[in-house]
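User: Hi! I have a protein structure encoded as tokens and I'd like to know what sequence might fold into it. I'm fairly new to this, so please keep things simple.
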């Protein structure tokens, strides 16, 4: 395992509620990535691949001139190359996560389907890929996030009398319980130490406040589970993930939060059509 003593020692402190920060994801990519081993870079990549997921969908829907948001591991040209390779049946470039390539293949073959929530399908493949990471800390982080997101969407679907089975993604034990249990707590009380907290936070009608509290919970998970990670890739992983959270909140407002919530409800309904 590589030791990144100098890199970690040079990182600035960041706080969850720190609206002002002197660091950025782009700066992390420029200054930290060149010093990572190939294996450790793939671990850190998992965080940025979520941006690639969103940008890939924009390209598939809007074409090569689609407006992209923050750049992840791949730039526009590289994402277009993934799409083109899938269209032509060529092998993806070396190092490209296979889930991106296989998703494009499936999208091209099934684009006309109107009842597919493509974001959910891509997210399911992304989480499956991330949770198979050999780095246990990273795999556990994505398992935790999948569970939290699935609990939220299951509670919301049940509240609006929608299909919980179609809303939940993935196939781990928590996803299975959410899909099949008719119990009020889906049979998860006691098996997940964060289940009741997530349900309680889901009941907050102030959407931006709720998301803020959920991110605070995620932030605590990162801190609590990396106590003994000093100068390893896990410490860099935590810093980048927390930096992503800080950047997101710096650009988030209440109106956008409501748009995201309404989008989630619309996707739940779409999956039932």
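Assistant: Happy to help. Inverse folding works backwards from shape to sequence: for each of the 273 positions I chose a residue that suits the local structure. Here it is:
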């Amino acid at each position: 395992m590589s030791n990144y003593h100098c890199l970690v020692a040079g990182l600035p402190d960041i706080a969850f509620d720190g609206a002002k920060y002197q660091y950025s994801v782009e700066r992390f990519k420029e200054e930290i990535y060149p010093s990572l081993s190939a294996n450790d870079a793939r671990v850190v990549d998992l965080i940025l691949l979520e941006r690639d997921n969103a940008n890939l969908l924009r390209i598939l829907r809007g074409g090569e001139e689609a407006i992209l948001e923050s750049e992840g591991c791949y730039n526009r040209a590289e994402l277009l190359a993934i799409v083109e390779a899938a269209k032509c049946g060529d092998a993806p470039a070396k190092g490209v996560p296979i889930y991106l390539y296989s998703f494009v293949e499936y999208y091209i073959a099934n684009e006309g389907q109107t009842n597919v929530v493509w974001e959910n399908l891509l997210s399911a493949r992304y989480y499956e890929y991330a949770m198979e990471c050999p780095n246990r800390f990273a795999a556990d982080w994505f398992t935790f996030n999948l569970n939290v997101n699935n609990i939220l969407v299951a509670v919301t679907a049940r509240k609006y009398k929608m299909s919980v089975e179609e809303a939940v993604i993935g196939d781990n034990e928590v996803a299975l319980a959410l899909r099949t249990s008719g119990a009020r707590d889906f049979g998860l009380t006691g098996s997940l130490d964060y289940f009741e907290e997530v349900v309680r936070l889901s009941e907050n009608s102030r959407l931006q406040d709720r998301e803020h509290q959920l991110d605070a919970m995620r932030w605590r998970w990162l801190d609590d589970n990396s106590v003994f990670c000093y100068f390893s890739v896990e410490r860099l992983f935590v810093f980048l993930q927390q930096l992503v959270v800080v950047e997101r909140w710096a650009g988030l407002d209440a109106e956008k939060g409501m748009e995201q919530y309404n989008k989630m409800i619309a996707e739940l309904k779409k999956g039932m059509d």
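A useful reference point when you look it over: The two ends are 49 Å apart (CA to CA). Feel free to ask if any position seems puzzling.
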